[in-house]
Amino acid sequence: MPQSNQQPKINHYETLGLDSSASKDEIKRAYRAKAKQSHPDKGGNHAEMSALTRAFHVLGDEDRRKQYDQTGSDSPRQDRESEILGLLMQVFAEGLQKEVPHVLNFAKKFISTLIEQQEQFTSKQRKIKARLLERRGKIITKKKGDVNLFHQLIDREIIQIDAQVAISEYKEGILKEGYDRLGEYKSREKDTVITATTGTGDYTIYSFK
């Protein structure tokens, strides 16, 4: 059974070195200062930059900051709830359309398959990132301080991969919450083994509306 995607809460204020009373200008200045220090070309790393960028996007937006201060979560709860309900409706509709004899079993198998595919996609992206980071250190400039175009190219690729991984992890969370919600249902249909097939590629990813 898939495990719930419960992750430890991140303190965005600590990431930026601020307290919760910081003004919008203070947040902006703190982000710029720390971003300069944490940039990979300045001795920082991509994980630090990703955390700083995420903190700035949350705290720099008035509505998202308000929600974060109130709940500790930085994902829009209303949108997330809509996506979970939309997922369940789509899976139930798929079961009805296929006229499967046990819709609940079908839904569980279907979502489990999607979770597995999403996890495989995330794992693949992380491996690509690791290979890029390894190659990044193998090309240097002869003169210290010169612009390294190879590093800049790798950095752009890694930023894109980080964004894809973040989206994938978010979708994973939706799928796992959707799977957990199926536990709120009880079936009186006759038990039957159902095999759900989703797509033809190795990494068919559920598309959220």
Write the layout of secondary structure elements.
Layout lengths: L11 H5 L7 H15 L7 H14 L2 H10 L5 H22 L4 H34 L12 H33 L28
Outline of this structure?
The chain is an all-alpha fold.
Global outline:
flat
Structural class: mainly alpha
User: How many β strands by DSSP?
Assistant: 0
Number of domains: 2
Total helix count? 7
Secondary structure: helix percent: 55-70%
What is the overall pLDDT average? 81
Biggest sheet statistics: none
Radius of gyration: 21 Å
Termini separation: 25 Å
Low-confidence blocks of residues? 4-8, 192-196, 199-209
Your description of this structure?
By secondary structure, the chain is mostly helical. It folds into two domains: 7-74, DnaJ domain (Helix Hairpins, Orthogonal Bundle); 76-209, no CATH class. The protein has helices spanning 12-16, 24-38, 46-59, 62-71, 77-98, 103-136, 149-181. α6 packs antiparallel against α7 (149-181). The protein is flat, with a radius of gyration of 21 Å. The two termini are 25 Å apart.
What attributes characterize this protein structure?
disordered C terminus, mainly alpha, Helix Hairpins, 209 residues
